[in-house]
Amino acid sequence: MPKYPYRELGVGFDRNFRNDLNANFDDIEADVKDLDTRIDNIVADVGSSNTEIVDARYDSVNDVTHPTLKDRLDTHANEIGILDTQLADTKQNNQYYYSKNLNIPFIQEIDINKAYAYKMISYASIPTYVTDNDEATHPSVIYIPNGWNGYKYWMAFTPYANGDNQTENPSIVVSNDGKNWTLPNGLTNPIIPPINNTGYHSDTTLLLSNDQKTLYMYYRTYLYPGHGNIDKISVTSSTDGVNWTTPIEVLSTDATIERNVSPAVQFDGEKYLMWTVEILSSPKKIKMWKSDTPDGQFTFVGSSSITLPTFSPSQEPWHLDVKKINGYYYLLLNTTETGTSGTKGNLIFGKSDDGINWKLQNNYLLTYENNSEWDSALYRSTFVPYTNETRTKFKMFYSAKSTSGTSGWRIGYSDVFFDKQERIDKHNQIIASMALGVDTCTFFDTFNRADGSIGTSTSGHTWVEETGSFSIQNKHAYSSSGGNTRAYVDILKSDFEASMFIKDLGTTSGNQAWLIFRFSDGANYLRFGIAADKSISLQKIESGSSTLIARLDEKSDGKPIVLGVKCVGDNITLYLNGEEKKTATSSWQNTKTRVGIQTNSSEVKFKNLIVK
User: Fold this and answer.
1) Which of 3.40.50.300, 3.90.470.10, 2.60.120.560, 3.30.470.30 would CATH assign to domain 422-611?
2) Architecture of domain 112-418 in this structure
3) pLDDT tens, 64-87?
């Protein structure tokens, strides 16, 4: 029975729309398959069954007999075309509507409490117009999978050379991988010139028009007392990313009364919405504004309801970015220790149905650290949604600076995933199935036995303690001797897959946790794990000296993690939480068959080691 007529689709991109859209696609597919079957039958029996041909011309849903089979097929094609038009109209009303047919990923509803990300080992190289200085901050990124004027990623940002606000002039760079950035051909930065010590610019944000023809860039300007003492938001636009229009002021306030920073702009299907952080109020407020056009005057809608999770010291909003994705508003909020003007920043996600009332993550995504690493203090950051056939993520571009180092203001890239716990659970479920005899492997150990010496693994292999002592405590393996500790088993094969759950890294700086393999003795082996500097590294140990072979981009955050390796000959593939990250090459010890664990601290807890 034909499924047509299909469900009517509204303009609002809510749950009902998504459910009806998915159902329509299923019905269309069923109808097309049914029609194909009928045509196949007709072709097979042509010349012997006039009845089937007549039947194929009859539309039982609308009780219409078409004069020819072609006429009926044309009618169905038109109906499907109408649905495609409705779909396209809905896309116009949603900044981040995604469909396979458009070669753009479809983002499912996201549980922000599952969001996790890692700080990164290094920052991106962003070319700036400032001579001999490439410090950069205030990123805003849009992602167009099919590209816009030749590039998939467009970033607006401001340089911030040595903290000099006179260099904070909005600039544009582009990329096709989100990691390597350059200028579009013909562009000279900055696209907004400096205002010569009468004030300064900051806080860029990008918006691509619904028809994807025009790119808008909003930015903030503060004029000093004696030069107006105002805070204002302006917008400029371009159809090629190179030639930009004269800026138009869209929001202005007396800076003695109200100061709005860090604008973010999205289209909700009817209005253009802008969010700002008002920094004169105490506590600081997130405000929402609206306009009928992208370059019209924005008027006040209301202040947002924000309840930050408990955190010490106390936090307040500082900068933000907002994206509308499939009917929900997602907020990436930069908070800071109260009264520190953004110098001790954290990052946290929020989600809202209406853009006013926000529910934030239970815990912060990335947090301030008082150290010399380039991203110890987080600042204004941005994100874009992305998915493949198996995973949804946000690509996050975060700005930060070192608290005590010399790296200055930088922009880095980190993936935000929402399935870390599921992937850890999957690892642990695999070993559970092995313990039940449902699955097979070369070696596994749950460490799920009585407290005492490390003894014999779950799979029956005897652990050999090469240096120091490992013990079992509360169903985990740990170094009972403290200090450098190694233990191994012989799996009798040099090509294998291994994964290990590090349940707890402890709280002491410099703690290490390693999966050791192709182990000959304490002075010669390979290891993959967490180093003293929090890097996640593959190292070669030869004659007791370590040499770096490969290092992941991510840094350990001290939280539970699954690390894995796959060894095939000289090729070693590295995994983080079940995701393939890098493949390295090393012939060192490639015939050795011992696998084990190593740590330098009794605080580290190992769990569920698997070798296949």
Assistant:
1) 2.60.120.560
2) 6 Propeller (2.120)
3) 777 776 676 666 666 555 555 544
